[in-house]
Design goal:
Helices cover 34% and strands 17% of the residues. The chain is α+β, with helices and mostly antiparallel strands and 149 residues long. It has a single domain, classed as Diaminopimelate Epimerase, Chain A, domain 1 (Roll), CATH 3.10.310. The longest helix is centred in the C-terminal third of the chain and has 22 residues, at 115-136. It is flat and about 40 Å long.
């Protein structure tokens, strides 16, 4: 399957500022009987050949929400995050690359996890990952400090 980049109005990667926040496209899927009746999450990453730094940063975002992420205090205190046991059990995310589609990654989610906790966590943890990458001057996913697995 070929993915065509939609027009975005952004300049080519070579002319973008180093502070550009690179996007990852996430899609939630409904429960799938063939996959244990679990909800799914799919991520489309930037093309590593065209934008290696962006792809590396995107992998860092995927890593940041995997396993049992270290949540900010406001999320740990949130009743919905507590009810879904996100701080203790995470979202159940275990990323796997989709064979034949190197930019596409997929995972299932724990039954208790919902978009109402997942999406704020993706945004917050993604921003934290971006800030950590900027502090280190790299875009890689090798920063796992503060995370529990």
């Amino acid at each position: 399957m070929t993915f065509h980049r939609p027009p975005t109005g952004l300049p080519p990667a070579s002319r973008r500022s180093s502070t550009t926040f690179h996007q990852v496209l996430f899609a939630l899927t409904k429960e799938d009987e063939a996959d244990g009746n679990n909800k799914g999450l799919v991520a489309l990453l930037p093309d590593a050949a065209e934008e290696p730094k962006a792809a590396e940063e995107a992998l860092g975002v995927l890593e940041a929400i995997s396993g049992v992420p270290s949540l900010p205090a406001a999320m740990r205190a949130n009743a919905l995050f507590q009810a879904q046991r996100i701080e203790r059990e995470g979202f159940g995310i275990r990323w796997a690359a989709v064979e034949g589609a190197p930019r596409l990654w997929r995972t299932t989610l724990r039954e208790a996890a919902t978009r109402k906790t997942l999406m704020p966590a993706v945004l917050q943890l993604g921003l934290q990952e971006r800030a950590a990458a900027a502090e280190e001057g790299v875009g890689g996913p090798a920063r796992s400090e503060g995370r529990r697995s």
